Amino acid sequence: MNTQKNEATGAPKVELDGVAKVFQVNRAPFVAIERIDLRILQNEFVSIVGTSGCGKSTLLNMVGGLDEPSAGEIRIDGASVRGPGRNRGFVFQSYSLFEWMTVEGNIRFALEKSAIAKSEKAELVRHYIHAVGLAGFETAYPKQLSGGMRQRVAIARALVYKPSILLMDEPFGALDAQTRGMMQELLLKVWEEHKVTVLFVTHDVDEAVFLSDRVIVLASRPGRVKRDIAIDLERPRSFELLTDPRFTDYKREILAEIREETLKVMALEQP
């Protein structure tokens, strides 16, 4: 196999400095995220793992501009995040497709406000339909597609306007194991071809290790960076990697960190 390392270089693409988030719960402050300092490079694939409720999705939403930090600053290419922007594409666990639109229509919708020519839009839609393996399904409606195919449409729609960052929140969580594996391989293929920075939230440690250059383990209550683990495994990757002893070592290390946090949470919840 032709092996290589990911070319993640240059100034940080995403920077988080002292980022915190506090919610009001029953009129009392709840510190969801205490303080996070993080740097993500151009073209890095970074996964965030941790126990339920540790702030993974909250962190992703703040990077996406869907929520604001209570303290600290998030910067993309050196500019402060003040809200959503077309430099970021989102893919959620729920497919969020328009049921009355075809595959082609759902993907083209992301370009609705773009000033590019109609012919260029058509070419972009065609390109990404092929990139995610949906050629021949252009006129199909979401209800006619499997879960994996629906998620392919969501990925194509997120990429078609060429964001430089892809934010993914448990995108394959609802899929069966076989389809999930195929979608992971597809995502790596698209990522390697289109050179985007990916911030990926998952509960699946195998998935995080298989996909990522780095895995960020969040501590719980409040959320903060517990470990930042570089995954030193060659690319391109195939599922043969899952039996590699190095893969198993990374998995064991990350699971131990999460288990420690789970035990802390359980102790807090004891009466």
TrEMBL record:
Domain of life: Bacteria
Keywords, alphabetical: ATP-binding, Nucleotide-binding, Transport
Domain named ABC transporter: residues: 14-245
Gene Ontology terms for molecular function: ATP binding; ATP hydrolysis activity
Entries under InterPro entries matching the protein: AAA+_ATPase, ABC_transporter-like_ATP-bd, ABC_transporter-like_CS, ABC_transporter_ATP-bind, P-loop_NTPase
A Pfam family hit: ABC_tran
Family membership: Belongs to the ABC transporter superfamily.
Name by which UniProt lists this protein: ABC transporter ATP-binding protein
Protein species of origin: Flavimaribacter sediminis
